[in-house]
Design brief:
The complex is a heterotrimer of chains A (490), B (479) and C (98).
Chain A: E1 4-5, H1 7-10, E2 16-27, H2 66-78, E3 82-83, E4 86-87, E5 89-93, E6 103-107, E7 113-114, E8 117-118, E9 121-130, E10 134-140, E11 148-153, E12 160-166, H3 173-190, E13 202-212, E14 222-227, H4 230-249, E15 258-262, E16 267-272, H5 274-277, E17 283-284, E18 291-292, H6 295-303, H7 309-320, H8 324-332, H9 334-345, H10 354-368, H11 382-393, H12 399-412, H13 416-423, H14 432-444, H15 446-453, H16 460-471, H17 477-488
Parallel strand pairs in A: 14-15
Antiparallel strand pairs in A: 1-2, 2-12, 2-13, 3-7, 4-18, 5-6, 5-17, 7-9, 8-9, 9-12, 10-11, 13-14, 15-16
Chain B: H1 3-8, H2 11-20, H3 25-42, E1 50-53, E2 70-74, H4 101-108, E3 112-117, H5 151-158, E4 164-169, H6 175-181, E5 184-187, E6 207-212, H7 215-223, E7 254-258, H8 268-283, E8 287-291, H9 299-314, H10 333-344, H11 347-360, H12 366-386, E9 392-396, H13 412-416, H14 423-428, E10 432-440, E11 443-450, H15 456-470
Parallel strand pairs in B: 2-3, 2-4, 7-8, 7-9
Antiparallel strand pairs in B: 1-3, 4-6, 5-6, 5-10, 9-11, 10-11
Helix pairs in contact in B: 5-6, 7-15, 9-11, 9-12
Chain C: H1 8-17, H2 24-41, H3 76-81, E1 86-87, E2 90-94
Antiparallel strand pairs in C: 1-2
The chains are: A alpha+beta (490), B alpha/beta (479), C mainly alpha (98).
Chain lengths: 490, 479, 98
C-alpha cells in the first residue's frame, strides 16, 4: 500500500516514500471531568461547568476519575497494548490562557498503555490527560484598549482525553484516513467515546516525513495539528507531503516544526517553532499518586468491552459461515453487522441461509437506502428481510419477485408473506400451471426450441423470457429451465 | 473570670470550661478578638500577626468538641469569603469561593474562626520577612523575627492573641517559628491532614499542623484535623484516633541523637539547652544513644531543588487571568504575564521560581531534580534504619534562637540554613514536634522530636512527659 | 558540578520560561544569588546514587481515584467575581495572537 512520490517529482533523489504517524486525542465518554466532579459540557453557556479544581483556583487539588482510567484500559485492551501495572501523571508546564494551572496534567514516560496494534499499524502508547479550555477571539475590546482580546471559557477545561499515538507505520494520506476510520469504528464499538470529529471528540495530529523509498531511516518530521475531518486529514497530509517533496527536490532541508493546515486555502502555515519556546519541564505530578492497575480493574474493563470489529469479522467468518469479504464488511460497518445479526436472531421460518442474508442486506437493501443510512432506521424490520430471504431460499418466491417485495418493504414496511399474498407474487411451482405455460412458450418460440434441441444451450433465453413475462416473474428460473428440457426431451 | 484570666486558659481547658457551662464561648471569642483587632490596627507598631480579624463571633455550634474556642488560621488556608492571600501582593484581597478541608473540619468540630495570620509569601521563608503585608515581630523581642513561614500563627499564640493556630510546614515552617516563639508546633505525617484548600508551596512536602501553647492543645487540635479527604488524593485514613497525652515518664523510651544535626552549625546556647533537656529525658527514664543519619547533611540541598521545582509549577497559575492582580496596561499576552508576575511576586518567591524552573529545565533535570529525588530516597532509608534502633530522634529544632529583623535578608543561603534540622523529616514525610526546652540569651530554644510515620500518639506522649519535666515558662511572651 | 555559574543569558532564558519580567537592575543580583544556592546544592553531585530509585511521593498507597459522579459547579458570577478583567460570560485576556 506504500504510496510513493513520483520519481519525476522527487528529482535526483529518486522515489520518495512518506512516513506517517498519527496522534489521536479522544474525548472519553465519562459523566464528569478528568480531575473534578464538574459535568462535561456540551454547549452550555460559557463558564457554567467549572469548579475550584478545573479553574485552577489556589489550593485546589486534582483527583483522577476512575471511569476515565477504566475507559483508558478498555482502549488498551482493544489495541492489544500492555497495561502498565503502575503509571504516573506528569505536569507539562507552559503558559497559555486556556491552561488554568499553568500546566497540563498528562502522562509522560510511564503511560497507562504501551504498544499494541490495530490492523497493520502498531500503537506506540495510550495515555490519559486533561483537555484545555476554549479561547474565543473577540477582536478589539474596550477593556484592553488598542489590542485584540480573547475570552476564556473553562467549560471544556479538564475534559478527559485519551491520547493514542501510533508508530510511523502509515505510508499514504488515503491509508491514514482509512486507518483512522477503523480506529473510530473500534472506539465507537467500545463505547469509550462518541468519536465525533466535528464536535472535537476525536482530533488528529499527523507526524509526517519523507525518505527515499526502500530505506529504513527517518527523515525530519513535521507535525500537522488538529485536523477535524477525514477529508481534511487526507488533503492536509497530501499537501504536506507535496510541500516536503518540493523542499527536498530543491535540495533543501525540512525544518522540524508544528504546522497548521487551512482547509479553505489548502495552505500550510507554521504554528510555532518547537525548539525555540518549548521546554515543558515535565515532572511527576506530586498531587496525584501513581495509578496502580490491579487484575480486578482489568477484568472489569474486559467485561465492559463489546466485540471489536476484527474479532467480529473472525466470528462471522468462522462461526456464522460468511465469506471473508462479507464478514469484514459487516464487522467494520457495525450498523450493518448489528442489523444482520438481528435478522438472524429473528429465527424466521423458513430460515434464511446466512451468506444469502448478508448478500441481500449488504447488496439489495443498502442499494435501496440513502448513502450511509443505518438499515435499523428504515421501515424494513430485520425479521422481515430474514423472512423474505427465507422465502426466496425455499423457492416460494423467485429472486425477481423478492426484489419487488423488498421495494414494498422499503417504502411501506410490513411482512413479506402478506405482500406476496396481496400482490400475487408467490412462485408458480412445478405443477400443471407452469408446465402448460412452458408448453405454450415452446410453441411460440419454435425456432429457438429447435436450436435448443440441436444443442445450443444459449437459445433457451427467449423461451425463459416468455415464461417470465407470462408469470410476471413469479416462476422459479431453475424449474422453468428443467421443464423446457423435459418437454423438449433433452 | 476576668478577661486576662480567660486568656490564660489553654485551649483544652477553655473548651472544657465552655462545655461545663462555666465559661461563655462568646465572651472568650470577644476577649481574643479585641486583642487581635488591636494588633491589626497597630500595624507596624504591633506584632503584625494578622492579615484579617473577624468582625464578630461567627455562627459556631459550641456543643462540638472544640466548643467555640477561637482559632487563628494561616493566611494560605482558603476561607470562603475571607481574604486568603498567602502573604502575597499577587493575591491581595482574594476571596476564595470555598474553604480548605482542614479548616472546615475544625469549624465543624466547633472551632470559631478568629483571624487569618501573616506569613512569608507563599510559605517561602524562615523569618516572616517575606510577607507582602510586612514582617511579623517576635513577642519575646520585637526587634527579632518570629521565624517562618508560619510566623504570624506562632507569634499570635506566643503573645496570647489567639489560643491556638493553624500553620503549615514544608521544610520547617511550623516547627521553626514555634521554636523561635517558645510554643509547641507539630508537623504531622505527610498525608495525615488534607491539603485541599491550602495554597500550595511544594505539594510533596506541604503539611498542615497545629501551633499551640502546650502539647495537649496540639493533640486536641490535631485530633480534629486528621483523616482521609476525597478531595486530596495524597491524604490517608489516620490509623487510629489522636488521644490527649497523659504520660509523665519516659521509661524505656529510646531516643536517638543524630550527630549530623547536633554538631557544628548549631549555636552553643541552643546546643546547651538541647543537651540539658536530653539529661531531663534520661532522668525520666529515657534511653539515649547516638545515631547516624548519613545523608541528612545533603537534605537541605535536595530540599532546595525539590521545593523550588514544585513551587515553580504550583505558582504558574498566578497569571493575572482568573483572580488576583494583573499589571496595568499590558497590551500583549506575554507582557501581561511577565509584568503581572514581576510586580505581584516578592523577591524570595521570584528567586525560588527561577531556581525551580532552572532545575526542571531541559538538560538540568537529571542533575538536579532527578538527583534530589534520589537523595530523598536515601534520607527516608536513613530514618527507616534508625527507627529500627530507637523510637524517636531528638535534635534542636533550629540552629539558632530568633535573629534580628533584617539580619539575614541579604543572604538567601544563610536564611536557608535555618531549615537544616527540620528539612530531613519533611523529605521523609515523618511527623515531628517542636517543644520549647529552655532559653538562650533570654530567647526560647526548641527541641525537635521526630518519629516514624503515624507515630503521632506516641510522639505526643513523649513530648508531653518532657514538657512537664522541662516546665518551660512561656509567660514572658504574653503582651 | 561545583562552582555553578549562572550567566546573564541563562537568567534571561529561565525568566522567559517562568514568565517573569526582570528589570535590568535585577538580572545581575539574580544571577549571583542563584549561583550561590546552586553551588551549595551541587554537593549532592558528590553522592553515589547509582541504582537508587527516585522518590516522588513519600505516601505509599496506590492511586486514590474518584468515582465518576457529578458535583455541583460554581455559579458563573462567583467564577468571574475575582477576575481582574471579564467580558460578559468569560475572562478577558489579551489575545495570544496579538
Amino acid at each position: 500500500m506504500s504510496d510513493s512520490v513520483d520519481t519525476a517529482n522527487a528529482g535526483a533523489g529518486g522515489v520518495l516514500e512518506a512516513v506517517i504517524g498519527l496522534e489521536i486525542h479522544v474525548q472519553l465518554a465519562t459523566a464528569t471531568k478528568m480531575f473534578c466532579g464538574c459535568e462535561l459540557s456540551f454547549g452550555e453557556p460559557p463558564n457554567t461547568r467549572t469548579c475550584p479544581v478545573c479553574l485552577g483556583l489556589p489550593g485546589s487539588l486534582p483527583v483522577a476519575n476512575a471511569r476515565a482510567v477504566h475507559l483508558g484500559l478498555m482502549i488498551g485492551l482493544a489495541l492489544g497494548s500492555e497495561l502498565a501495572p503502575r503509571s504516573i501523571f506528569h505536569r507539562k508546564n507552559y503558559f497559555y490562557p486556556d491552561l488554568p494551572k499553568g500546566y497540563q496534567i498528562s502522562q509522560y514516560d510511564e503511560p497507562l498503555c504501551l504498544g499494541g496494534h490495530l490492523g497493520a499499524v502498531r500503537i506506540h502508547r495510550v495515555h490519559l490527560e486533561e483537555d484545555a479550555a476554549k479561547l474565543i477571539h473577540v477582536g478589539s475590546s474596550g477593556r484592553i484598549h488598542g489590542s485584540d482580546a480573547s475570552i476564556v471559557d473553562f467549560n471544556r477545561g479538564g475534559t478527559p482525553l485519551a491520547e493514542i499515538v501510533t508508530e510511523p507505520d502509515l505510508r499514504s494520506p488515503e491509508q491514514a484516513s482509512e486507518w483512522l476510520k477503523l480506529l473510530r469504528s473500534t472506539l465507537r464499538r467500545l463505547g469509550v467515546s462518541d468519536v465525533n470529529m466535528e464536535e472535537g471528540s476525536l482530533r488528529c495530529d499527523a507526524n509526517i516525513s519523507l525518505r527515499p523509498a526502500g530505506t529504513s531511516g527517518l527523515g525530519v518530521k513535521t507535525e500537522l495539528k488538529n485536523m477535524n475531518s477525514f477529508r481534511f486529514i487526507e488533503r492536509g497530509i497530501r499537501a504536506e507531503i507535496a510541500r516536503q517533496a518540493e523542499i527536498l527536490r530543491g535540495g533543501g532541508q525540512v525544518v522540524q516544526e508544528t504546522l497548521h493546515f487551512d482547509p479553505a486555502s489548502a495552505a500550510i502555515t507554521s504554528l510555532r517553532s518547537k525548539e525555540e519556546a518549548h521546554d515543558y519541564r515535565y515532572f511527576p505530578e506530586p498531587d496525584l499518586l501513581p495509578v496502580t492497575i490491579d487484575p480486578g480493574m482489568i477484568d472489569a474493563a474486559r467485561a465492559d468491552m463489546s466485540e471489536l470489529p476484527a474479532e467480529r469479522a473472525e466470528r462471522l467468518r468462522a462461526e456464522v459461515g460468511l465469506n471473508a469479504e462479507s464478514a469484514q464488511l459487516l464487522a467494520f460497518r457495525g450498523e450493518l453487522g448489528d442489523y444482520f445479526e438481528a435478522a438472524l436472531a429473528a429465527e424466521r421460518e423458513p430460515a434464511p441461509e446466512p451468506q444469502t442474508l448478508a448478500n441481500w442486506i449488504a447488496g439489495e437493501l443498502v442499494a435501496r437506502l440513502a448513502e450511509g443510512e443505518d438499515p435499523a432506521g428504515s421501515r424494513v424490520e430485520p425479521g422481515a428481510i430474514a423472512a423474505l430471504v427465507g422465502l426466496v431460499g425455499a423457492k416460494r418466491v423467485s429472486v425477481g419477485a423478492g426484489r419487488q417485495v423488498l421495494d414494498r418493504l422499503v417504502s411501506d414496511g410490513g411482512e413479506p408473506e402478506a405482500i406476496v399474498e396481496a400482490e400475487g407474487l408467490a412462485a408458480i411451482g412445478g405443477g400443471e400451471d407452469l408446465a402448460a405455460i412452458v408448453a405454450a412458450a415452446l410453441q411460440a418460440n419454435a425456432e429457438a426450441a429447435e436450436r435448443v434441441r440441436g444443442g445450443n444451450a444459449k437459445a433457451i433465453g427467449p423461451i425463459v423470457g416468455h415464461v417470465m413475462r407470462e408469470t410476471k416473474g413469479r416462476a422459479d428460473g431453475t424449474e422453468v429451465s428443467r421443464l423446457i428440457h423435459e418437454q423438449l426431451g433433452v | 473570670m476576668s478577661v486576662t484570666d480567660i486568656r490564660e486558659l489553654s485551649a483544652v481547658a477553655a473548651a472544657a470550661e465552655i462545655g461545663a457551662g462555666s465559661l461563655s464561648a462568646g465572651e472568650l471569642f470577644s476577649a481574643y478578638r479585641e486583642r487581635a483587632a488591636a494588633d491589626r490596627v497597630a500595624g507596624p507598631d504591633g506584632l503584625n500577626c494578622f492579615t484579617w480579624v473577624a468582625a464578630g463571633a461567627p455562627l459556631t455550634d459550641v456543643s462540638g468538641p472544640l466548643a467555640g474556642v477561637p482559632l487563628a488560621v494561616k493566611d494560605l488556608f482558603c476561607t470562603e469569603g475571607v481574604p486568603s492571600q498567602s502573604g502575597s501582593r499577587i493575591l491581595e484581597g482574594y476571596l476564595p469561593p470555598y474553604t480548605a478541608s482542614a479548616v472546615s473540619r475544625l469549624t465543624e468540630a466547633g472551632a470559631a474562626l478568629l483571624a487569618k495570620t501573616n506569613q512569608d509569601e507563599f510559605a517561602m521563608g524562615s523569618s516572616n520577612e517575606n510577607s507582602a503585608f510586612g514582617p511579623v515581630r517576635n513577642p519575646w523581642d520585637r526587634e527579632r523575627v518570629p521565624g517562618g513561614s508560619s510566623g504570624g500563627s506562632a507569634a499570635a499564640v506566643a503573645a496570647g492573641l489567639a489560643p491556638w493556630a493553624l500553620g503549615t510546614d514544608t521544610g520547617g515552617s511550623i516547627r521553626q517559628p514555634a521554636a523561635l516563639c517558645g510554643i509547641v508546633g507539630l508537623k504531622p505525617t505527610y498525608g495525615a491532614v488534607s491539603r485541599y484548600g491550602m495554597i500550595a508551596f511544594a505539594s510533596s512536602l506541604d503539611q498542615a499542623g497545629p501551633l499551640t501553647r502546650d502539647v495537649c492543645d496540639a493533640a486536641l487540635l490535631l485530633s480534629h484535623m486528621v483523616g482521609r479527604d476525597a478531595r486530596d488524593a495524597t491524604s490517608l485514613e489516620f490509623p487510629y484516633a489522636i488521644e490527649l497525652p497523659t504520660a509523665e515518664r519516659l521509661d524505656g523510651v529510646r531516643l536517638g541523637v543524630p550527630e549530623e544535626l547536633t554538631g557544628a552549625g548549631v549555636e552553643p546556647g541552643v546546643l546547651e539547652a538541647f543537651h540539658a533537656s536530653i539529661v531531663r529525658a534520661q532522668e525520666l527514664g529515657a534511653l539515649v544513644s547516638e545515631v547516624r543519619l548519613p545523608h541528612a547533611p545533603h537534605a537541605l540541598s535536595a530540599y532546595y531543588v525539590i521545593a523550588p521545582a514544585e513551587c515553580s509549577s504550583n505558582l504558574a497559575r498566578f497569571d493575572g487571568v482568573r483572580y488576583g492582580m494583573r499589571a496595568e496596561g499590558a497590551l500583549e499576552l506575554v507582557d501581561m504575564y511577565t509584568r503581572t508576575r514581576h510586580d505581584g511576586f516578592g523577591a524570595e518567591v521570584k528567586r525560588r521560581i527561577m531556581l525551580g524552573t532552572y532545575a526542571l529545565s531541559s538538560g538540568y533535570y537529571d542533575a538536579y531534580y532527578g538527583r534530589a529525588q534520589r537523595v530523598r530516597t536515601k534520607i527516608a532509608e536513613d530514618f527507616r534504619s534508625v527507627f529500627g534502633e530507637v523510637d524517636f530522634i531528638v535534635t534542636p529544632t533550629a540552629p539558632t534562637v530568633a535573629f534580628g529583623l533584617g539580619e539575614k535578608t541579604g543572604d538567601p543561603l544563610a536564611m536557608y540554613l535555618n531549615d537544616y534540622c527540620t528539612v530531613p523529616m519533611s523529605l521523609a514525610g515523618i511527623p515531628a514536634i517542636s517543644i520549647p526546652c529552655g532559653l538562650s540569651g533570654g530567647l526560647p530554644v526548641g527541641l525537635q522530636i521526630a518519629g516514624p510515620a503515624f507515630c503521632e500518639n506516641r510522639l505526643l506522649e513523649t513530648a508531653h512527659a518532657l514538657e512537664l519535666a522541662l516546665d518551660f515558662d512561656g509567660t514572658p511572651a504574653r503582651v | 558540578m561545583r562552582c555553578t555559574v549562572i550567566g546573564r543569558d541563562e537568567v534571561l532564558h529561565v525568566a522567559r520560561l517562568a514568565r517573569l519580567a526582570l528589570s535590568e537592575a535585577e538580572i545581575e543580583p539574580m544571577a549571583r544569588e542563584l549561583s550561590a544556592v546552586l553551588d551549595h546544592i551541587a554537593r549532592i553531585g558528590e553522592l553515589d546514587l547509582t541504582d537508587v530509585p527516585p522518590t516522588s511521593h513519600v505516601v505509599e498507597v496506590s492511586g486514590a481515584l474518584r468515582l465518576d459522579e457529578p458535583c455541583v459547579s460554581l455559579p458563573r458570577e462567583v467564577v468571574l467575581a475575582q477576575a481582574p478583567a471579564v467580558s460578559g460570560e468569560g475572562f478577558l485576556v489579551p489575545s495570544p495572537q496579538a
